[in-house]
Each structure stands twice: as C-alpha cells, then as structure tokens.
Write a structure and sequence with these properties.
With 261 residues, this protein is α/β, with parallel strands linked by helices. It has eleven helices and eight strands. It has one domain: Alpha-Beta Barrel (TIM Barrel). 43% of the residues lie in helices and 15% in strands. The chain has an eight-stranded parallel barrel with strand order 1-2-3-4-5-6-7-8, surrounded by seven helices. The mean pLDDT is 97.
C-alpha cells in the first residue's frame, strides 16, 4: 500500500525539507502531500522546489489543494471563474511534476440552495475544467469533510453526495477523496462506505477519531481492517496521513506507517 504524509502536519519548526523527506523515505513512505502550495518559482518552498526536494530523497508528491477555499467551492457560481483559473494552474503544474491528483471542494451550504441544487451547481462548475484534467491525466479529488465538528455547513459531507457528484460530472478524472476521519464522524460504517466509493476512489486520508490525532488505541477507528479492505478492493492510490500528533511527530508517523503497511 502506497503511503504519503501531509508535510504541514509533520514538519517541525525550522526543519529542512531534505531532513524530513530523508527520514520519511527511510521509514518507507513513497510520497508527501501539501496544502495550498506556492507557484512562485522564486519561492524556495514553491510546489516545484518541494517536488524537487522530494525526488532527491526518493519521494514524490501525491496530492495538493487545487484551489481556495473549502468554504467557497464549486457549488457557488460566483466563484467559478476564480476556481477555474486556480484549478487550471494546479492541473498544469501537477501534470508537469507527475502529481496524480489535486483536491477540490464543494463549498458550504447557502440559504436557498438545497443539496440537490448544490450538486447541480457543483457539476456545472466542475465540467468547466474537467476536460483539461482529462487531457493532462490529473484527477480532481472531491474531498468529503465533516460538517458536524470541523467544517460547519460543508455540502459534500457524505460519501453518497460525493459519489453523486462523480457520477454527474461523468469523467474518469472526477474522483472522491475518502477522508476516513471525516467519514467516521458523519456516518461511520466505513467498510461499506469504502465499497460504495470504490469505483471513484482517487485518494484516501487518515486520522484518529476523536481528536484527529494518531492512529492508536486511544481512538475508535480500526485502521488495519480498513487497509485490508482497500487492498481487497484493489485500491492502487495513496493513503495519506493527515493528523496532528500529540507526541513526537516522527514517532507518530512511523507508527501510522506500520499500521497501514
């Protein structure tokens, strides 16, 4: 099972890219992933420079956030022009650097916009850019986020809404980011949810619940069973660790790798 880790979650203050990437590679990680990277070639920590540093350590970049923001997403026509510009830039950068997928968001619920209408709006917004994703062989991974604790009013808060979005957009590059932590909060029944999502799985995120911490015995999710199910389903994408360690970050990351290997 290919594993990646979210760089902002595990990099310590002042730690060089070379140091954390070398340590991650020694554990067995295949990739890192980012939030909202810089596209400025003069920035020493731009997406391109981070990708180069990762490659030097034997890693790749598996994913990054394709547009801003979680709240202002593709279910809002007033955001379409901006998001299309940002996603085009992200898709082209991902294709150039060999990054398989980027993250997109539904946006939050708004007064007068039902979930069904929001789905229709999301579909229209995503179709404006999905052809480019097809041409560049880059996935658009719609992230499922919980609306109970972390992201109030987020629309794509269930696996079934995200599946419906993938089906409506009707592109081999429209995928689902199955964030195990968020799905557990909203609906549980994780193995059956994975089975429903299987045709559309583009990326997977982990974190312990409650708290979004380590995948240890102080949280309620059975990660070994979920990894076994992903293997049985033939999932070939990345499992990306996106949690905040309560103790030593490298130790938490190492333990998560062993649990999910």
């Amino acid at each position: 099972m290919k594993q990646s880790f979210c760089l902002p979650c595990f990099r310590t203050q002042g730690q060089s890219l070379g140091d954390i990437f070398t340590k991650a590679a020694s554990i067995g990680f295949a990739a890192t992933e980012l939030w909202a990277p810089s596209f400025d070639s003069n920035d020493p920590e731009s997406l391109e420079h981070i990708s180069e540093a990762a490659r030097s350590a034997g890693l790749s970049v598996s994913s990054f956030t394709g547009h801003e923001s979680i709240d202002n997403g593709l279910n809002d026509p007033s955001q379409w022009d901006r998001i299309e510009f940002e996603l085009e830039r992200s898709i082209r950068a991902a294709a150039k650097l060999g990054i398989p997928g980027i993250i997109c968001f539904s946006g939050t619920r708004r007064p007068g916009v039902s979930d069904a209408y929001g789905l229709a709006l999301f579909t229209k917004g995503a179709r404006r850019i999905v052809k480019l994703a097809e041409e560049c062989s880059v996935n658009l991974n719609l992230e499922v986020l919980n609306s109970r604790i972390d992201h109030p009013n987020y629309m794509a808060d269930t696996v079934d809404w995200a599946i419906a979005a993938c089906e409506a957009v009707n592109s081999p590059r429209m995928k689902l980011l199955f964030d195990i932590y968020h799905v557990q909060i909203m609906e549980g029944d994780l193995i059956r949810a994975l089975r429903r999502a299987q045709p559309y799985l583009g990326h997977v995120h982990t974190a312990g619940n409650p708290g979004r911490h380590e995948l240890d015995g102080f949280q309620e999710i059975n990660y070994p069973a979920l990894v076994s199910e992903l293997d049985r389903l033939g999932y070939e994408g990345f499992i990306g660790h996106e949690f905040f360690a309560t103790g030593d970050r490298l130790a938490g990351l190492t333990a998560a790798f062993e649990i999910c290997r």
